[in-house]
């Protein structure tokens, strides 16, 4: 472990030297280009399809927030769900939702949005034959949708579902009726390169895999909760190499990066050519343990004292301080603290390697046992946790693989323990974690605790917030008491940006670039130079 930490520090020093050298080469420039009304940003993921209906990656979600609108939105300050294209809504009962639409909304082609477009969109998504990504969510709880007036729609739910507004806010961008019919036939790629959305920006140029140019949509409705963007044009570049991205920032060719590795973010900020902002994300890290004995019925991890010992053996404070860095937060429960229903009032396991050894001995393993820890990301963190477990007396083999390999091994019941992460789809509700990770039908669930699954299922079938909180508290406490997980930390989100760019850091880790503005907002809003 010490060797890996030394290599880490040498790498940091080397990179710092390289950045200082690059800054020196650029010293002939001011480090600040004379910006016009354009915001240049870089994504590490390629954008090859403009249509969020058929994509789920984070880059596409960020793009969709700019070019699309949904019936509802996630309020960036409160993380509550509020009407967007919807003017108002009302639950007639637990399974009937009435939505009234705004009257002043236009697609980018100039046509007016009506209830017909909303009904078309939801019926299209609900049909499994169309292959929409949101079908797996919407199809589970939505029975049917009907038009009740020119600007009103009724949704019939299969059962009481507390995340209905969440799904409507993040999974179903509204499309113009008939969008996927070309020459009388279904065409799933109809909007892949020629997007026709309702959002505050429209696509004016697109080079798949390379660049997307967006221009502020002048006919965007005036009272949208998103507001009127201050920046006229956004160019999204695909830059998969962090070295090239750093050079772009230092030369003034790039104004904004996100999900930047901490070391790179620190060094770019130290150069003086950019600033660093750090926020939380919805992603949490954890070690899941094979409590059900899926690998072997008599596996040590089936014993409670062993699982608790593993929890005590991990030095989470040191890992967060030395390896994860600024913005990370230690968690004690199997959820993100910003999520509704996430209580951290559960059994805690502070770092105590002596207690871990004692528990292992009491469980019948005074000399430890063999443990294979799987991981697919964060190699330094993975190595640190393996080191901690070895220090507690276990014979640990760290198996670092790609995610598809880990997923296949897990589905085959071949994983004793794995270091995993979960972003909950960016959802500030604990249901998006517990419903997915602990139901009896998923291979993610290595505990196979039927009582726990029943508690979580009951919470996902009621809209009563008081009842949901009580049930989720019960579930989270059981997970901690039984030590099914080793909860680790909330992942930080690093942003690097031009010194004169104002970008509100989101609480949920989802960048909303329509909220960005230059320090000189008057010039930026008018499209003038700054």
What does this entry look like structurally?
- Strand 6 (142-149) and strand 7 form a beta hairpin.
- This protein is globular.
- It is an alpha+beta fold and 530 residues long.
- The protein contains 16 helices and 21 strands.
- Helix content is 32%, strand content 22%.
- The strands form five sheets. Strands 1, 10, 11, 12, 13, 14, 15, 16, 17, 18 and 19 form an eleven-stranded mixed β-sheet that branches.
- Helix 1 runs parallel beside helix 7, helix 8 (304-313) runs antiparallel to helix 10 (353-362) and helix 14 (450-459) runs antiparallel to helix 15.
- It folds into three domains: 1-68 and 199-274 and 498-530, 3-Layer(aba) Sandwich (D-Maltodextrin-Binding Protein, domain 2), CATH 3.40.190; 73-177, Alpha-Beta Complex (Dipeptide-binding Protein, domain 1), CATH 3.90.76; 282-491, Dipeptide-binding Protein, Domain 3 (Dipeptide-binding Protein, domain 3), CATH 3.10.105.10.
Q: State the helical fraction.
A: 25-40%
Low-confidence stretches: 1-33, 522-530
Largest beta sheet, briefly? 11 strands, mixed
Name the CATH superfamily classification of the largest domain: Dipeptide-binding Protein, Domain 3
- The count of β-strands is 21
Assembly of the depicted chains? single chain
What's the mean pLDDT score?
A: 90
Helix/strand-derived category reads alpha+beta
Name of the CATH first level of the largest domain: Alpha Beta
Radius of gyration of CA atoms, rounded to a whole number: 25 Å
Task: Note the total helix count.
Answer: 16
Coarse shape = globular
Number of domains: 3
Tell me what the CATH architecture of the largest domain is. Roll
* CATH topology (fold) name of the largest domain: Dipeptide-binding Protein, domain 3
